[in-house]
Amino acid sequence: MEAVKLVEFDLKHTLTRLVTHLFGEDLEIRWVDCYFPFTHPSFEMEVRFQGDWMEVLGCGVMEQELLNSAGPGNKAGWAFGLGLERLAMVLYGIPDIRLFWSQDERFLKQFRVQDIEQPVCFQALSKYPPLHNDISFWLPESKESEDGQESFTENDFYELVRSVGGDLVEKVTLVDEFTHPKTRRRSQCYRIIYRHMERTLSQQEVRLVHEQIERSAQTELGVQGRY
């Protein structure tokens, strides 16, 4: 019995260090007695998440008969199983476990990062319908700026759209490119998807934002509108 208590202490101490390493020392944790067929005593670890207790792992001291049949003799041990989805919910602030089975690109793209160390915080998805407007323009004459960079880049336009449209802009995509066969001038067409988090947008209010983007693109990026 004394050996079981020592193993239980080691189990809880080790797993507590694991989750506090992942989520911080201020994480609120509690242990709940439960039943698993191959461990006794058995526990579930729960953490405080968004005001409620959420289970993140199950564990327990391994049944001695199971250990004996595996060959380690009179040694004692413990086992645990992590719920990776639930750990990710805490780590990234994801409110609903069903999102992990979603094919929604708005969810999936949030976790495509170049640097694995880059912090990611889940951005909630809107349940309201999107509106999309296209914008086409001729690019400025191809020339380099004083620092040797192209005078227009796609990233310049993406940043401008975000700065003007703010949180109303969900996505910006280059959908078409055209080169005039005689003048060799190039034009691009972008699709901007607008969506509000808390209500349905009207085409009229989206149009006001879109027109501001058109004006800013001409004055700040030097493009010539085709609208």
Automatic annotation (TrEMBL):
One GO CC term on file: mitochondrial matrix
Gene3D superfamilies tied to this protein: Bira Bifunctional Protein, Domain 2, Ferrodoxin-fold anticodon-binding domain
Origin: domain of life: Eukaryota
Aminoacyl-transfer RNA synthetases class-II family profile domain sequence ranges: 1-140
Catalysed reactions, semicolon-separated: tRNA(Phe) + L-phenylalanine + ATP = L-phenylalanyl-tRNA(Phe) + AMP + diphosphate + H(+)
Signal peptide span: none
PROSITE patterns to which the protein is assigned, alphabetical: AA_TRNA_LIGASE_II, FDX_ACB
Pfam families per the UniProt record, alphabetical: FDX-ACB, tRNA-synt_2d
Keyword Cell membrane part of the UniProt annotation: no
Example of a GO biological process term: phenylalanyl-tRNA aminoacylation
Keyword line: Aminoacyl-tRNA synthetase, ATP-binding, Ligase, Mitochondrion, Nucleotide-binding, Protein biosynthesis, Transit peptide
Localization, UniProt: Mitochondrion matrix
Keyword Protein biosynthesis assigned: yes
Segments forming domain FDX-ACB: 126-226
Main location: mitochondrion
GO molecular function, one term: ATP binding
This enzyme's EC code(s): 6.1.1.20
UniProt enzyme class: ligase
Assigned protein family: Belongs to the class-II aminoacyl-tRNA synthetase family.
Name of protein: phenylalanine--tRNA ligase
Organism of provenance: Labrus bergylta
Top-level taxonomy: Eukaryota, Metazoa, Chordata, Craniata, Vertebrata
